[in-house]
Amino acid sequence: MTPGYFWYLSLHPKGPGQVAITFGGGLSPEFMADPKAGEFVATLKTLLDEVNLEDRGCTEKVYRGLSADKAVPGHLSYLERPIYDFMQYIAERTAGFERSFAQAAE
Predict the structure, then answer these.
(1) Residue ranges making up the domain that contains 44
(2) In a domain, 104, yes or no
(3) pLDDT band at 36 (very low <50, low <70, confident <90, very high)
(4) Closest residue by Cα to residue 89 from 81, 78, 100, 97
(5) Domain Aromatic-ring-hydroxylating dioxygenase alpha subunit C-terminal: where (predicted)?
(6) Is 106 part of any domain?
(7) End-to-end CA gap in the chain
(8) CA-CA-CA-CA torsion sign (17, 78, 99, 88)
(9) Which of 1, 32, 48, 54 has its CA 20 to 30 A from that of 99?
C-alpha cells in the first residue's frame, strides 16, 4: 500500500505444485486526478510487472527447496513477523479466530 495506490496478489492452491494467482489493485481519486496520472499508471504497471516476475522466480525456488527430500519445516524468520501478523488479522476477521493469551498463574 502507498498513499496513492495499492496492489495485491491472492494465491489459490490447485494441487501439489500448482497455484492460481489473482491480482489487482486500486488507485485513489487524488492519484487519478493528477494530470500525469496516465504516465504514473504506465510506470506503475511496468514496475509491478517486473516485481511480480521477480517474486514468481523467488517463490518457485523456495517451493522447490521446500519440496526437497531433506527439507525440514521451521519457524518464520523474525523478519517475516508482518506476514504472521497479517495472517492472524485475516484469521480473526474471516474465520472467527480470536487470539488470546493465557494469563500467567500468580
Answers:
(1) 5-94
(2) no
(3) very high
(4) 97
(5) 2-95
(6) no
(7) 43
(8) negative
(9) 1
In a domain, 88, yes or no: yes
Matching residue, cell 500467567: 104
Question: Does 26 map to a domain?
Answer: yes
With beta carbons less than 8 A apart as the criterion, state whether 34 and 14 touch. Answer: no
Tracing cell 517474486 back to the chain, one arrives at 55
Q: How far is CA 13 from the centre of its chain?
A: 14
- DSSP code per residue over 13-69: EEETTEEEEEEEEEE-HHHHHSTTHHHHHHHHHHHHHHHHHHHHHHHHHHHHHHTST
pLDDT, average across residues 64-76:
86
Instruction: Please tell me the total count of domains within the chain.
Output: 1
Q: Which residue has the higher pLDDT, 65 or 1?
A: 65
Show the cell assigned to 64. Answer: 522447490
